[in-house]
TrEMBL record:
PANTHER family: ANAEROBIC GLYCEROL-3-PHOSPHATE DEHYDROGENASE SUBUNIT C (PTHR32479:SF19), GLYCOLATE OXIDASE IRON-SULFUR SUBUNIT (PTHR32479). The lineage of its organism: Bacteria, Pseudomonadati, Pseudomonadota, Gammaproteobacteria, Pseudomonadales. This is (Fe-S)-binding protein. InterPro entries: 4Fe4S_Fe-S-bd, 4Fe4S_Fe_S_CS. Pfam families: Fer4_8 (PF13183). Residues 34-110 form the 4Fe-4S ferredoxin-type domain. It comes from the Bacteria. Keywords: Iron, Iron-sulfur, Metal-binding.
Length: 457
């Protein structure tokens, strides 16, 4: 059986364990599946993320362990390719929202999202990809090469006839708007901002990784992060493709959109561009700081399975989320932001699943405490349900909304005057799709709390 991701990290998994029950087919991929010990912790009721679709449905096939059992059966089959196309397995993998909750909460850290990426790659190799999947996968490219397509999104959101047409042709839901690209992406102004601050002595230099979604959809988040870092006295460089790159003018991308659709080779290409661009900065002693948890986790975790060599690990070790960087600098007594109290009222904080997967909510709490008199509450809201493109797909939209209705949306309705902090782009889009536009990134909240902005309030 041909596999598309590098599973060699699991080559010793189950060795010497008579109960490992490693499937016959799949090699090291089969070992990655077989690390599950069938404890059914993933089917427990409690304060955990995994698995959103199981928590909502109670269907054991939709738990992490349930997916493992189905995959094992397929990999033990005499006709593996046909078994991998089994409808029950296809449904179970289709409804995995790649939250990474299992990677943190499972006793043996089963990485079902990465296993799903291999499953999708297998399926794409067997039957190809549909138009919708290709459209979503190539989003970073068309945003750069075909900006004239951006008005189509606005028309889709404002014209019911066009929305209905795209619903029929592409399988998009007509019950929520698509995220609209900003008129001016981030790169139009970043060079001036990059040189806007003078570095304080003793502070590390920062390379800001502006992801596809911050760059093209919410450039204000990246601008806010720059303002905060500059206010702290940090010199900030913007991560850009190296001059020797085949497309030096195209912004960097972690490859997440490709991996999410099973296009491993394309994801490998994008992650390779990113690593090659960041490696010289890391070797020069700079820290890489990212704004979007799924992109940072893509570099620190998923990219390790793309077969890119030791350089990925070198870069990953020096890559932090924005909140992780600020918390670390605060602990080291190097962070001195001129923050002042915000207008009255508490903040509700919703964590992106990938923030929770890397333990970054502790960093969020530490940084939020830096704002004088700031009252905030971390919501035990699980997964918001948007999960990248999941909530935009017609067949998944209702389930996506039901996930949001478990905790998140009721909590927002119960506190209509509260500020809302959500660092995940998908999470903010889910809230807006359900009529609540309050959510902002932590960088925007800190920018608003900078004392130098007092006159702007």
């Amino acid at each position: 059986m041909k596999t598309f991701l590098d599973w060699s990290g699991y080559k010793d998994a189950g060795m010497g364990d008579a109960y490992a029950d490693i499937p016959r087919e799949g090699g090291d991929f089969a070992k990655a599946v077989a690390v599950c010990i069938n404890s059914r912790q993933c089917e427990a009721n409690g304060k955990q993320v995994m698995c959103p679709s199981y928590r909502l449905s109670g269907n054991p096939n939709l738990s992490t362990g349930g997916r493992v059992r189905l995959l094992k059966a397929a990999l033990n089959s005499d006709l593996v390719e046909q078994a991998l196309a089994d409808p029950a397995l296809a449904e179970a993998m289709d409804l995995c929202v790649s939250c990474k909750g299992c990677k943190r909460e499972c006793e043996v850290n089963v990485d079902m999202p990465l296993i799903k990426a291999e499953f999708l790659a297998q399926r794409a190799d067997r039957q190809g990809l549909g138009v919708r999947s290709r459209l979503f996968a190539h989003l970073p490219r068309w945003l750069h090469h075909a900006p004239w397509l951006k008005p189509l999104v606005r028309w889709q959101n404002s014209l019911p006839l066009l929305a209905g047409l795209s619903g029929r042709l592409l399988g998009l839901t007509t019950h929520r708007p698509l995220p609209e690209p900003a008129a001016n992406p981030f790169e139009l102004q970043d060079q001036a901002l990059e040189s806007a601050a003078v570095k304080r002595e003793g502070l590390p230099e920062v390379v800001l990784l502006v992801d596809t979604f911050s760059r093209h959809f919410e450039p204000g988040v990246a601008h806010a992060a720059l303002q905060v870092l500059h206010a702290g006295g940090y010199r900030v460089l913007i991560a850009r493709a190296e001059s020797a790159d085949a497309e030096p003018d195209r912004p960097l991308c972690c490859g997440r959109t490709y991996l999410a659709q099973g296009l491993v080779e394309e994801a490998r290409h994008e992650a390779g561009r990113l690593v090659r661009a960041l490696l010289p900065h890391v070797q020069a002693g700079r820290l890489v700081v990212g704004l979007e948890a799924s992109c940072v986790l893509g570099l620190r975790d998923d990219a390790q399975a793309l077969g890119l060599g030791a350089e990925v690990e070198i870069v990953a070790r020096q890559t932090l989320l924005f909140e992780e960087f600020l918390a670390r600098e605060s602990t080291a007594k190097r962070l001195h932001l001129p923050l002042q109290a915000l207008p009255g009222g508490e903040s509700l904080v919703h964590g992106h699943c990938h923030q929770k997967a890397v333990g970054a909510m502790k960093s969020m709490r530490k940084v939020l405490k830096l704002v004088p008199g700031h009252e905030f509450r971390l919501l035990d809201s699980g997964c918001c349900g948007m999960a990248g493109t999941f909530g935009l797909e017609r067949e998944h939209a209702a389930l996506s909304s039901a996930m949001a209705e478990q905790v998140l949306l009721p909590a927002l309705r119960a506190a209509p005057e509260a500020r809302v902090i959500a660092n995940g782009f998908s999470c903010r889009q889910q809230m807006r799709a359900h009529g609540d536009a309050r959510a902002q990134h932590l960088a925007e909240l800190l920018r608003d709390a900078l004392a130098s902005r007092d006159g702007d309030r």
